[in-house]
Amino acid sequence: MKIGVLALQGAVSEHIRSLESAGAEAVAVKRTEELQDLHGLVIPGGESTTIGKLMRKYGFMDAVRDFAAQGKPVFGTCAGLIILASEIEGQEEAHLGLMNMTVARNAFGRQRESFETDLDVKGIDNPIRAVFIRAPLIKSVGAGVEVLSTYKGEIVTARQGRFLAASYHPELTDDYRLHAYFLEMAKEAAASKA
Ligand code: GLN
């Protein structure tokens, strides 16, 4: 499986390392043409306004929507989750809007800008290690979205078909099981096409 990591801004090399640990071939994606031969795409953490701006500038909004329309999986972490959401609290405009959910940015407050915790995720046997950095929360999900984990009652991991979103940074630990989970999604998608 060849998985791309959108490399406009944010935590790119860490995702590449985690994807490789999970057994994928992983590449940084800087131009829309590079989406062509991928089986899945990761949109990393960083700053969602900046990533959104650069995606618009370089043609990635339509390109990633096309990619998704071909049934190929997309995984957004932290800022990447915000990019996937159909609604962002307090903002007029969403970005890709591929996942039916409302998110709130920087939702854990200043005193808890960053922290680590062990998180139970549906579909993964034991808790995973999660690093939250100025993290967004999923305030509500709409039809078709399955909640995979909560932290103190708030939704922090969700899946809608071939889209996966996490509020935190799974790429900043040595625990690559969420990447392995995404890789399985990519394998299923590729197999259903063959
Ligand atoms: N706070 C950032 C945003 O709103 C996301 C933080 C992150 O990706 N670590 O875009």
From TrEMBL:
Entry coiled-coil feature ranges: none
Keywords, alphabetical: Glutamine amidotransferase, Hydrolase, Lyase, Pyridoxal phosphate, Transferase
The UniProt record lists the keyword Transferase: yes
Active site feature: 78, 169, 171
Highest rank taxon of the organism: Bacteria
Keyword Transcription regulation set for record: no
Catalysed conversion reaction: L-glutamine + H2O = L-glutamate + NH4(+); aldehydo-D-ribose 5-phosphate + D-glyceraldehyde 3-phosphate + L-glutamine = pyridoxal 5'-phosphate + L-glutamate + phosphate + 3 H2O + H(+)
Its EC number(s): 4.3.3.6, 3.5.1.2
One CC-aspect GO term: cytosol
GO molecular function, one term: glutaminase activity
UniProt binding sites for L-glutamine: 46-48, 105, 133-134
GO biological process: L-glutamine catabolic process; pyridoxal phosphate biosynthetic process; pyridoxine metabolic process
Subunit record text: In the presence of PdxS, forms a dodecamer of heterodimers. Only shows activity in the heterodimer.
Function: Catalyzes the hydrolysis of glutamine to glutamate and ammonia as part of the biosynthesis of pyridoxal 5'-phosphate. The resulting ammonia molecule is channeled to the active site of PdxS.
Family: Belongs to the glutaminase PdxT/SNO family.
This protein's name: Pyridoxal 5'-phosphate synthase subunit PdxT
